[in-house]
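Q: Give me the 3D complex with magnesium ion.
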Amino acid sequence: MSKYINKAIGEFKERIRKEKVSLFLDYDGTLTPIVGRHEKARLSYLMKELLRKLKRSYPVAVISGRGLDDLQEKVGIDGVVYAGNHGLEIYSEEMSFRIKGASRIKTALNQITMDLEPIIEGIKGVIVENKGLTASIHYRLVDRRETPRLIEVVKEKLSPYIEEGKVRITEGKKVIEIRPPVDWDKGKAVKWILRRGGFKGTMPVYIGDDETDRDAFKVLKGCGISIVVGHRWQDTDYFLKGQDEVSGFLKWFGLSLDSRYINCRNSCSDYYAGDP
Ligand SMILES: [Mg+2]
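A: Here is the predicted complex, encoded as structure tokens.
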């Protein structure tokens, strides 16, 4: 059962006491509040300063469904690992990854987003965002009475592509994600990162708020620590009550922990075999 971390801070501290810790942070709903227009989700000055400080002591990765360029631009801190499009593309000064078949995926997504345009034209507030390797259909601004119809027509339109194995879809907070049919997600991206650079041999602490973060939470079982924001999911170690508690937790993290320990007992990289 997930515990409220602010009430279990002693236990948390004990768990990481002898570990070299790395941080994996989701962006929307974790580092920033969820906003009506996704392009307006900006890091606060405080959060940016916190990340800069944390990065000096810990390897830090920001992992998001946003496109890589968008994510880099929004966070804008050197020395951080950026994992965009749910980890389909990863970049930092010391590592870089792009899922195989990226150009084929892009071509298919261009076609699909073009096909979707006419059917959603009449629905006010819907935003289709083509992020290269994935696409998002945002419906946060759509009238609630219209959303069932929107979801239905989008699924109907996409069903031939899904049947042909060209794409798969996942749902997040007021967003439908169109993703390539590859066996790759935030969890696999976390494992990939953990085998590289300063992340090798670290104990990952992952904070995220959305369905897509569950893939990462799963891989951290027994070898890392998962913290979910705004939910009390059974399958995570801890939870924070809302996004407004994230900065307080990170501040405590930056102030009170000593990252000089490099004694790693049960790193996730130990059991990961094989690259994609
Ligand atoms: Mg999120």
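A quick observation: Residues 26, 28-30, 208-210 surround magnesium ion (CB under 6 Å).
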